Amino acid sequence: MILKTLSRMRYFPLFIGMRQSLSGSVRLYSRRSRGPEIKNKLKLATTVGSTKQTGSTLSRKPSPNIRVSDKRGPKIKTPAHRSKDKSRSTFNYGNFGGLKESGAEESQRASKIISKISDFDQLKVLPVVRNAIKQVIADESLAKGKIKDIKPSPIQVVSIRKLASNLMDPKLQLHAIAAETGSGKTIAYLTPLLDYLKRQEIETPEYWESINKKAVIRSVILVPTHELIEQVYSTVSRIDESLELHTCKWGSSLPYSDLLEQIKNRIDILVTTPAKLMSLFNIRMISRPDKILSQLKFVVLDEADTLLDQSWVEDMHAAIKKMPNTNHIVFCSATIPNEFNRTLGSLFPTVVSITTPRLHKLPNSLEFKVIDASLNPFKGSKVKALAQVMYAILNDGTEPNFEKRCIVFVNEKKDVSTLVEKLSTTYGHNCVGLTGDDKVSERLEKIAAFIQPPKVLETPQKTVQREADNTKIYKIPNSNILITSNEGEKSNIPPPSSRLRILVTTDLMARGLNFRGVKNVILYDVPKTSIDLVHRAGRTGRMKQRGRVFMLIDKTAKSWARGIPKIVKNSIALS
Ligand SMILES: Nc1ncnc2c1ncn2[C@@H]1O[C@H](COP(=O)(O)OP(=O)(O)OP(=O)(O)O)[C@@H](O)[C@H]1O
């Protein structure tokens, strides 16, 4: 009961925060209206500000009343009181817990559809769009498959099928796509978007004639970071040619004059952030921004739980209000926090959710290891434990022909530089740190080597010949990772710097980024919430690839942190 009241309280400031910007009313989308209409005004209490996001997750204080599992070990909670289906169990993780549980019926329905549809040809998509999408996947996906072997992922099956059912219906349609990290959600929303644009051209030729030479934007994909603009645009731009569409990315480096040029030639798909889109109304050179957005029919909010978080919801809401003729709004995320779920339900009561049975489950291709730094030989030093794990990753014989990459997540931005310093100078690693304080251009440069597929090594790694055995060997519990007590072990392998590349960062890089072929993620700090855990761990083990997550704990770690390997193994959803 305490949890419920508390989360309602936490939710309530959301509307209060909005009141300050929406002059006393919160617009609600009514069931019958074609577009946004004021349905009723919420009576709101005193005001509190809304916290601005500062390039890493919001610093929320854990509420004292949140119950964490007891000392005896993590409780796998069977929330009988919460879900009718007694057989399901979820794992209440972190200070908040607080992820929406998908109902059993919803999962069963999705499983049934997924079992019946295993090929793109079974989905109602224009052949030209289907071929373009399969080509994009074949070009991008690491599992260099042949076009004919490309199959839709579960979330792509259920999303494309659902949106295709009434795709060209003129009324406002709202969908929320949610599935585990690395499950192909980008293609899941891009396919219906492309299909919509091409059908508009084919099925309404007069309308198409009336706009195709106009200065308009037909669809927009909104994302929270510049890195995601680059990533999503690199996928979207691959279909330019084949579908004769004008695509545009509006990040930090696009001058207004170039943007104007592109608008003049019609933009079919714009990839940008909400703030950039809203700045259209402040560009002197643009006299009628409302006209430019008057033909905006398809809107996607990727990482939607961030875009409708307390720190963004005002910009987001203002942006959506400027799109009066939208046909489709698609919200997309790997996590549905309860708070987001309530916001969505209140602002957009007709939203239809599209999920898969693996929502809020960590990828089952993940090996999840918990390493207790309070044990010997680390004696409480997490830096030592980290160094040993790096040493083990370097020498465990995995990825023998490629440069290994490892992403280290910390909770606090201030710890990034200290850790980079330690790993580079004390242990000689090739290591960079990235936070929201870096310029966008620096950030893009730093992550480039992690977004690209792994680099091939000139001299493949030979397996380590262990020297005379005066070194003690430590085995990480339930893993094949052996750690020696003597870090300075000499052996006939190239220095670490040429074989392992390390990125130390915060949650800023945890969302959505498709770190292609990165096999190792280290959680230097225990993530505070299940949302952070899902997104950080989800940077590896993507689209059925293997991946390893090492989480460092010490004696201050709560018992629920130790329960993660079990929930990954048993494929239990986080709640
Ligand atoms: N049908 C498919 N078959 C094989 N690979 C695919 C398929 N669809 C997408 N991929 C690849 O899977 C990877 C992950 O896709 P994507 O980044 O869209 O995942 P996501 O669900 O958005 O992840 P996150 O929740 O972390 O944002 C990409 O490299 C993409 O090229």
TrEMBL record:
Residues 48-92 are annotated as: Disordered. The keyword Nucleotide-binding applies. This is RNA helicase. Residues 74-85 have a biased composition (Basic residues). It is an enzyme of class 3 (hydrolase). GO terms for molecular function: ATP binding; hydrolase activity; nucleic acid binding; RNA helicase activity. The keyword Nucleotide-binding applies. Residues 385-575 form the Helicase C-terminal domain. Keywords: ATP-binding, Helicase, Hydrolase, Nucleotide-binding. InterPro entries: DEAD/DEAH_box_helicase_dom, Helicase_ATP-bd, Helicase_C-like, P-loop_NTPase. It holds the Pfam family Helicase_C. Residues 48-62 have a biased composition (Polar residues). It catalyses: ATP + H2O = ADP + phosphate + H(+). Its EC number is 3.6.4.13.
